[in-house]
Design brief:
By secondary structure, this protein is mainly alpha-helical. It is 30% helix and 6% strand. The protein is built from five helices and four strands, in the order H-E-H-H-E-H-E-E-H. The strands form two sheets. A two-stranded parallel ribbon has the order 1-2. A two-stranded antiparallel sheet has the order 3-4. Helix 2 packs across helix 3. About 16% of the residues have low confidence. The protein binds a DNA duplex through helix 2, helix 3 and strand 2.
Length: 129
DNA sequence: AAAATGACTGGGA
DNA sequence: GTCCCAGCCATTT
């Protein structure tokens, strides 16, 4: 087990039940923005039961054909499907990006005077359901 | 060192 | 909408 694998595991472990994340997002949070495919390789070998690998899905919400139990495991967590895909609009995981991620326009500022009108909260996660 | 592999992706047809 | 493909990345031959 190498560093890359451990890193991916850690990110995947932080995806809350009932939420899903595309391979590409996992790669991003893990610090390798274009390594979506490599994340897939790690998942392929993942046998560790403490890693919710079933919450990692394709960018369009569809699932990996070979991972047969994935759908059932997701449904068990309340995730609903529209045809062959999960509804990302409702279940997409909104992670807190690590500070070291290279953000071009890091200029942080309040968006629109009203935007968060009364809400001062840090965007932690997408709204539950 | 070079080539093949795969639970990936975005873009074009 | 769906299909296909070149590009991408870590691993394994």
């Amino acid at each position: 087990m190498d560093a890359w694998t451990r890193r991916v595991y850690e990110v995947v472990r932080s995806i809350p039940p009932g939420r899903v994340a595309p391979y590409g997002l996992v790669a991003l949070v893990a610090g390798r923005p274009r390594a979506a495919r490599a994340v897939g390789n790690v998942m392929l070998e993942c046998d560790d039961p403490t890693v919710p690998c079933h919450r990692v899905v394709h960018a369009d919400g569809s699932l990996a054909p070979s991972f047969r139990s994935q759908r059932a495991r997701l449904r068990r967590e309340g995730v609903r499907f529209t045809g062959a895909r999960v509804d990302l609009r409702e279940r997409l995981w909104a992670p807190r990006l690590p500070a070291d991620v290279d953000r071009p326009r890091a200029t942080r500022r309040r968006l629109g005077g009203d935007g968060g009108s009364s809400r001062r909260t840090t965007l932690k996660d997408s709204p539950a359901l």
